[in-house]
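Field reference: sequence -> structure
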Amino acid sequence: MEPEDLVLVREGSVEQGKQPSRSVLLHRAIYAQQPHVGSVLVAHSPYTMAFALTDRPFESKTIPEAYILLRGMPKLPFESVYASAEETAARFAPDVPLALVENNCVIATGSSLLNAFDRLEVAEYSAKSIIEAANLGAIVHMDDDSIRDIERAFGL
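Structure field:
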């Protein structure tokens, strides 16, 4: 992807001479339904995509930073991006800032572009850690007491 491949869509107006992705309808629906969202990113990052391509769920309760920034990350059906934008947008509540889309992508939301990118980056590195750790043995998730401590400390 090159910078000229990006398409700016601002307040419903598309950059002259360019065609946005079909997912622009989902972006609009998320912004309309979720006032806490200031940025939406759609990516195809390799380690996170491994979870979108398999039946294995992505569990954020493995690394404290992952749980703090990612919280819940549901896996949505492939067609949800295009066929049910309004229903899909409703999933992006404050405690669900990311979603995997089966065989398609990962969608990250945030209060700003940097916040959404930070979440996407944490998801990618967490996914890589989980995949690599699985080669060593069973994944050990944080226990409920640890999760409560994190939620208390970070006001989640």
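Note: The first helix runs from residue 24 to 33.
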